[in-house]
Amino acid sequence: MEQNILIIGGNGLVGKTISRILKSRNPHINVFIGGRKGGKTDKDLRIDVTDPSSFKVIVEKKINLIILSVNDKEDHILRFAITHRIDYLDITKPTPALVKAYAIAGKTDVNSRIVFSSGWMGGIVPGLVNALSDSGDINEVKLFVYYSVKDLAGESSAHFMAENVAVPFVYYQNDRPVSIRHFLDTEAFNFSFGIGKRNAYNFDVPDLYILNKVERISDVSVKMTYNSKFITWLLGAFQSLRIYNILSLKERKMIFGSSGNGDQSVFEIVVEDPSGQKKLSLQSLKGQAELTALSAVLHTEELLRNPHENKVYFSHQLHDPLSLMAQLHAYDSININVTQ
């Protein structure tokens, strides 16, 4: 059967990276690129997520799977995929948008695979959490993120932080949501891969919601540090003084909109279960865009390879946890260490 895959937002940083990795690993697949301006070839389609009338080309090209790597605030593409029974993989949504889209899909009669993959680095963290626990009875998960301003970064992450840095979010303690704000409540953590001891601060990613509400883990927290200790301290100082509340959206975008030429991306998962505490450390030498794109490709390959039933998924639910970890570890620019 011919496989036609459409990457909407395929001209962006992550979208281009998904296309490159997907084509290199699966040369037999037809990959189409969707963007607001279209393109020069018959594989470049003009699709504007704010204009549903532009979606008819998706049916005309007999698309089997849509990969969404651009912000679709009104969930037009999600609704179109459900209506036309097209498989759907979304890597774009911050927590509030994910909760909304998940509710839309849950109230609809679904006759395709609808996959939400908006967790940290393409939704792989919950799968790696499950790979760490032998019993499956996990008491607590802590995610620590190292973010380098030297790394190549797309606009979406900067826009999310600019829009939400002054808005409280929740982490989970004793199975209850606790309201917090970004860049407060410092916790010292010794990062791997030569980074060393850093202060890490509150940070909102969809894994907080997914690990608590879907995986039923009672205590979940996420904290971030930047490669620059001064920048990390400054962001925390701005929050403590409520400076973000008086800045315009444009000014906040200037703060979070920096992008370099490339650097490593690192995150560490600390899991506590009845057998004790384990830590998984993951380093992407080519940065966060490469890792996010690879994760999307692994989810895509899993959908193509195995007959998962038609329903709504979070991406980690497609995989055997140990197999997912092994596939990530096998990629040439990714290093994974597990310690007891």
Automatic annotation (TrEMBL):
Name the record gives this protein: Saccharopine dehydrogenase
Domain of life: Bacteria
PANTHER family: CARBOXYNORSPERMIDINE SYNTHASE
